Amino acid sequence: MRINIAKKFVLILSLLFFGYELNAQVLWYGDPNLSVNDNFRHLDPNGNSNPSGDDCVDDPNNPPFVTTPIDSEFGKFWRITKPVSRKRAEFARTTGDVNTFTPQKGGTYYYGWRWRFNSEPNLNAGIAVFQWKTTDGGDINTNKQNYPYTMSYDGTTLSLNAFGPAEPNWNRPGSITQRRTTLWQHVIPEDEWVTFVIKVKVDDNFDVVNNRYEGYLEFWFNGVQQTLSNLNFNEYQVVLADSDKRAYHKTFDGVEVYPKWGSYNENACDFEVITDFDDMRVASTYLEALPSGSIGGNPTNGLEGKYKIKHSVTGKYWTVDTANSNIITADEISPNNNSQIFEVKSVGSNGYYNISCTLTGWDAVRFESINVYPTTTATPTTDTNNTRIFEFVSNGSGAYDIHTPQTTTGRYAYDNSGDVNYTSSATANTKWLLENTNALSNEGFHRNSVFISNPIDDEIIIDGLEKKVNKIEVFNIVGKTIVLKNVKGASSIRIDANTLISGLYFVKFYGEVSIYTRKIIKK
């Protein structure tokens, strides 16, 4: 009891020092400098307590264990080792003695982590490496899914899976495979670091009007938002929306839901499985959930600036046609012609934007009555001006779907034989390239050129900056900004660290089209 009280006292002091607020963007961080039980409820080692037939028999003399090795690039990380003759080795729940968080029904959260996998011999059958698990509260009939969604790996292919509800409960014979639909798959070799961010709205309510659950999932792999689908489904499918980037699904089940990371399945019994985890966190924004060292476009910020908007197929540019109060596509007139230059302006905090004409006499672009045209409405508008509010959805290749996220039906800009119109869904003809009018910043920066002193003492030394880096932010593990500096044009900077207490910090580099984060330790 004395130890727990002391830990909580230290936590309170650290939160006071960091200026922690209830609306801090980082809700939980799995800190490998603390113990397992400081971060998680426990390491779940139990597989079959009452095995039968060919079921795996847990060897009580050879339990799973956790270590915290050092990676040359990412620093200290979590390693779970599941020996042969064990079915399970998982971190269960983000409710530790020090770092603690419980997802609530109705809440929307971003879960991010870096992951690496090894097995001996090489795995050849699918096992669960992440579970969104449920608790039935003592009544199995409240538990219709048992795990609303999971990630599985077979030594070659990683899959994101969703499971629909069953009656009277999840354990209906044969229901697991019947209720499964695969949202995403990707070939990933063993022994390779990759990063994930899952956005989940936790909900089990059913929207009768739109015939879908109100809960949903979105998914980013290595910093790029992924297109989702219904693969290999039987009796259940999710409802896809937003260019198939969102999967509406029942994400709350039983009386409580919680995450589990590690390895689990009968198929794992004959293998030693090592799962590595780094930068594990829960946040209220995508950027704060994105693991350090990831490079990826920012879906909620960072697109502000002046661009030429070029069609990915025809190569024609958005152009203000003043005579007809319209926006058309045309060949490039000249590098600085304002009729072809548009400014993207952030509106609100949901990754929404206005598109503003830079040509004198015009301002906000509007999608209405099938047409895309300039108006004199001043920008930024209110964040509810639905036909003038836009979202840029990246397809991972540098092109964007430009659409109106607040309208009741989809409105996606496309090139209609020289006229910019909109259609109801994303197609190959709705892809646009943003050409920054500053030629030095239309590509991402090279992270390998950046040097950061680590660990640090009295200052943070950063060398090798490029002109494509605009600003640098230093923040702590609860997302509190400590330093924010504009560095455009600088090749190196020095940041005073004398006021920082010992611990873990993050340095984030902002470019025009990419973001990169590194961890540092203050001695």
The share of residues in extended strands comes to: 35-45%
Average residue pLDDT: 85
Structural class: mainly beta
Total beta strands: 41
Total domain count: 3
Distance between the termini: 29 Å
Q: Rough shape? A: globular
Strand count, sense and barrel status of the largest sheet are:
10 strands, antiparallel
Fraction of helical residues: under 10%
- Helix tally equals 4
Q: From the alpha-carbon coordinates, what is the Rg to the nearest angstrom?
A: 25 Å
- Tell me the CATH architecture of the largest domain: Sandwich
Low-confidence stretches: 1-24, 297-301, 438-443
CATH fold-level label of the largest domain = Jelly Rolls
CATH classification, class level of the largest domain = Mainly Beta
Protein name: Secretion system C-terminal sorting domain-containing protein
Pfam families: Por_Secre_tail
Organism: Siansivirga zeaxanthinifaciens CC-SAMT-1
Keywords: Signal
Keywords:
ten-stranded antiparallel β-sheet; Immunoglobulin-like; mainly beta; single chain; Secretion system C-terminal sorting domain-containing protein; 523 residues; Secre_tail; Jelly Rolls; signal; Trefoil (Acidic Fibroblast Growth Factor, subunit A); 3 domains; seven-stranded antiparallel β-sheet
Notes on the structure:
Strands 1, 3, 6, 8, 13, 16, 17, 18, 19 and 21 form a 10-stranded antiparallel β-sheet that branches. The chain has 4 helices and 41 strands. The protein is 6% helix and 42% strand. With 523 residues, it is mainly β. It has 3 domains: 26-289, Sandwich (Jelly Rolls), CATH 2.60.120; 305-436, Trefoil (Acidic Fibroblast Growth Factor, subunit A) (Trefoil), CATH 2.80.10; 451-522, Immunoglobulin-like (Sandwich), CATH 2.60.40. The model is unreliable at 1-24, 297-301 and 438-443 (pLDDT under 50).
